[in-house]
TrEMBL record:
Species per Swiss-Prot/TrEMBL record: human gut metagenome
Any coiled-coil regions, as ranges: 5-111
Name assigned to this protein: ATPase involved in DNA repair
Keywords: Coiled coil
Length: 165
């Protein structure tokens, strides 16, 4: 196929250069993939922290609602002299406050659940993408490693053959 040793060496050098270029591209892609995974992990961490804060707020609202329920219970109002000063309007206002707390609690719960679902879905989606990229790069690297090895073997055999002449 090659008419001279020089042509053979040039072809082998071109093959080696191409393999080296592809190896560099694969290394760069793996570095970018690693950076993307690191960015993703930090975003997940922030989202998890937000979910924790929302749960804390939800717990605080739940505690306030419980306290208010105790305060508003009829027995408690009748037994505590301070609460005998409450008017019907102030009791209605306290009940409205309790309803507002309950509404806030429901909204917080919904936000926490939505946040958790978003984080879980995003994690699964990003992990699948990362795994696909890793598989793709690994397959490409193996292909070029095989080509490089075959080219190296071919070069070695051709050089051996030329030396025997």
């Amino acid at each position: 196929k090659y008419s001279s040793v020089e042509e053979l060496l040039n072809a082998a050098k071109a093959c080696a250069d191409k393999a080296e270029q592809i190896k560099s591209e694969i290394d760069l892609a793996q570095s970018e993939l690693s950076n993307a995974k690191s960015d993703f992990d930090s975003k997940v961490s922030v989202e998890n922290e937000t979910a924790k804060q929302l749960k804390s707020f939800e717990s605080e609202l739940e505690n306030k609602k419980s306290e208010l329920d105790i305060v508003l219970s009829e027995n408690n109002i009748l037994e505590c002299p301070d609460f005998n000063l409450l008017t019907e309007d102030s009791i209605k206002e306290l009940k409205r406050d309790a309803e507002t707390f309950t509404d806030s609690l429901k909204k917080s719960r919904a936000t926490v659940e939505a946040c958790e679902k978003s984080v879980e879905g995003k994690q699964r989606e990003d992990v699948l993408k990362i795994n696909e990229l890793i598989d793709s790069y690994t397959s490409e690297k193996e292909k070029w490693d095989n080509l490089y090895t075959a080219g190296d073997r071919s070069l070695h055999n051709n050089l051996k053959h030329l030396q025997q002449r």
